[in-house]
Amino acid sequence: MKKNSLNLLSGIVLGIVFLLLWLRMINWPEFLGFFKKFDLKSVILFSAFYVLAYLFRSLRWKLIMNPIEKLKTSESFYIFMTGLLVNYLIPIRAGEVAKSFILKVRRNIPISSSLPTVFIDKISDLFPIVLIMILIPLTSIKLNSTLYIIIGLLFVIFIFLIAFLFFAVNHHQKALKILNFFLKFIPAKLRDKTTTFFENFVNGMSVMKNRRQDNILVYLLTLCSVFSEAIYIFAVFKSFGAEISFAKILFGYTLMNLTYILPTPPAQLGSNQFMWVLIFSFALGVDKNLTSAAVTFSHLLTSIWIFLIGAISLISLKIKITDLFPKFKK
Asked: For 23-39, what is each residue's pLDDT tens digit?
């Protein structure tokens, strides 16, 4: 509980720092001026592509889950959106565990069996870093040192996780031996339960083994979600009058999305604003006040979507949000 409270406090402090940095960049008269001439109806219409992106991701997770449990499309979407809502509220990725917890309650699937599917699903979210590498030489993008560091860090994380997954699947017994070595340092009272949990987790990592067609579909669905969100963000910038190509939007928002694997404040407040300006203004050349107006409106609109669909998902799953939080305080 103390650790989670510390993580929450760290996230809030991080958000305040990012928010203050962003506020110092804004010219308020110019910032407010962009709201007087933007196309509201167009943005709301195209925000359907933002929701569609999460439908693609929920279908991807459903596909990964198939050998363990065949979920209905609606159920996988509701569980996925509930996890997204929890992630939005708690900056410790509690939403990933929430998905497994819901499956435990609804389908009696052990958390150690479903959690590897969530882990593999998150690794899939990092796959677009490859797209970023392809787009850099194809577009006239000038990256500063900060963006090079972010891209490099994300690429290293992606390679490490892919290597870990490959090792766990193809060198199963060695992975268990390494795991058992580290578990020796855990108190004897907890060791048996912890050992069983992590052994099941390692076993579950092979869920995508010998599923070549499904692996291809997983990454195709990932790309579909990336392009779907990029269409929405392109509409947002165009509605505020930005002159920017779709390729640059695809690059910028894909990179923005990848940064979500790093620690973020509750509701990404502050970090979203700062990172948008860093990527779209300093790297892609869009006016920083226009970018700030775009991120402010987009953040508000997507928050409404997340809370609305998250609430509908909770009702459909017959779960209260308060039933989920206590599990992360223990």
From this structure: 788 888 998 899 988 88
Q: What is the pTM of this model?
A: 0.83
Measured over the CA atoms of residue 166, residue 151, residue 123 and residue 56, the dihedral's sign is negative
Of 70, 57, 168, the closest CA to residue 122 belongs to 57
Task: Find, among 263, 319, 61, the residue nearest to 327 by Cα.
Answer: 319
The per-residue DSSP string of 123-136 comes to: HHHHTTHHHHHHHH
SS3 state at 166: helix
Q: What string of H, E and C letters represents the secondary structure of 53-114?
A: HHHHHHHHHHHHHCCCCCCCHHHHHHHHHHHHHHHHHCCCCHHHHHHHHHHHHHHCCCHHHH
CB atoms within 10 A of CB 73: 11
Q: Are 316 and 306 in contact (CB under 8 A)?
A: no
- Dihedral angle over CA of 175, 179, 181, 184, nearest 10: -160
